[in-house]
Amino acid sequence: MIISGKELSATLKAQMAETVATFPEKYGRVPHLVVILVGNDPGSVSYVTGKAKACEVTGIKNTTIRKPETITEDELLALIRELNEDDSVDGILVQLPLPKHISEAKVIETISKEKDVDGFHPLNVAALWQKQPCTVACTPKGIIRLLKAAGVQIAGKRAVVIGRSNIVGLPVAKLLLDENATVTIAHSRTADLASVTRSAEILVVAIGKPRFVTADMVSEGAAVIDVGVNRDPQTGKLCGDVDFEAIEQKASVITPVPGGVGPMTICCLMENTIECFLRRQ
Ligand code: GUN
C-alpha cells in the first residue's frame, strides 16, 4: 500500500481552513507566517513556493521575504529580531540551507521560541526531549501522522531510523520512542547496516542518498517511510532514499517521493503556525 501524503495533507489542510475561517470573528485576525528565503537555490525556491500555496489554501497570511545571497549575517539577524518584536507576526521560518558565511545555529537561536514554527530552536528541542509542551519539527510530526493514518501500530514495534540530523533523524526517533516503539538510530557508518534495517518493522530513512536502501535491506511487511528528496543521477528526476520499485513489493506500506513525506511537512508547518498563533492570543 502506497501512503499518499498528498491526500492526507489535503484533508488536514481543508480542516485547518475551516478552523482559520473562524479566527477573524474570534480573534480579529488570521495567523501570519513570515518565510525568509536567502538566495536562489532551486530546491529552496520550490519549498518556499509550496509553503506560500499551503498558506493560501488554509487561509493563513503569508509574507515571503527574499534576500540576496550577499546579505550579511548581522543584517539577517537584525531582520529576525525586528520580526520577533512585530506583534502582527506569529511564525518566522528561515529556509535552510543558508550561504556558508551565515551561521545557521545563530539564525535558529535568534528566532524567538514562541515564533519558531520549525521547532528548531534549542529551547523547543530541549522541551521535546524533556516531554514538555513545545513546537515539534514539521517532518517528524508529519511522519507520525502518516503512520497513524495508514493504520500502522507503533507501540511495541521495532523501529529503525537511518539518519541522525537535528531536523529529522533525532526528533523522529524521539517521537517513535514516545509512541512506545523500540528505536535504533543508524547512520551511513553503521556496521552491517542491512542486518540492522532487516530487524525493522518500521523503517524511516533520512540520509539524503538516492536509492541508498535496497530491497535486501528490508523485511517482508515492514512500514517504510522515505524522507529523501534527491535527484536521480541517471534520469534527473526526483527520487527518494529507498529503491521504491523493488521495496514496494515487500513493504506493507511505503511513502512515495514525491507525494509522501514532503506534503506532510508543509501541512504540519501550517498546523504549527496556527498553534503559535493560538498560544499568543
Ligand atoms: N529546508 C529543508 N527543509 C526545511 C524545513 O523544514 N525548514 C527550514 N527552515 N528549512 C528547510
SSE layout:
Blueprint (H helix, E strand, L loop, with lengths): L4 H17 L1 H5 L4 E7 L3 H17 L2 E7 L5 H13 L5 E4 L9 H7 L11 H8 L8 H12 L8 E5 L6 H10 L3 E5 L6 H5 L4 E4 L17 E4 L3 E2 L6 E2 L4 H4 L5 E2 L6 H19 L2
Parallel strand pairs: 1-2, 1-3, 4-5, 4-6, 6-7, 7-10
Antiparallel strand pairs: 8-9
The chain binds guanine.
Explained architecture:
There is one protein chain. Helix 7 crosses helix 11. Helices cover 42% and strands 15% of the residues. The N and C termini lie far apart (42 Å). Strand 1, helix 3 and strand 2 form a beta-alpha-beta unit. The mean pLDDT is 97. The chain contains eleven helices and ten strands. The chain has 281 residues and is of the alpha/beta class. It folds into two domains: 87 residues, 3-Layer(aba) Sandwich (Rossmann fold); 124 residues, Rossmann fold. It has a five-stranded parallel beta sheet with strand order 5-4-6-7-10. The structure holds guanine. Guanine binds next to strand 3.
Overview in brief:
This protein is α/β, with parallel strands linked by helices and about 280 residues long. It has helices spanning about 5-20, 25, 40-60, 75-85, 105-110, 120-130, 140-150, 170-180, 195, 245, 260-280; strands spanning about 30-40, 60-65, 90-95, 160, 180-185, 200-205, 225, 230, 240, 255. The site of guanine has 8 residues, from strand 3.
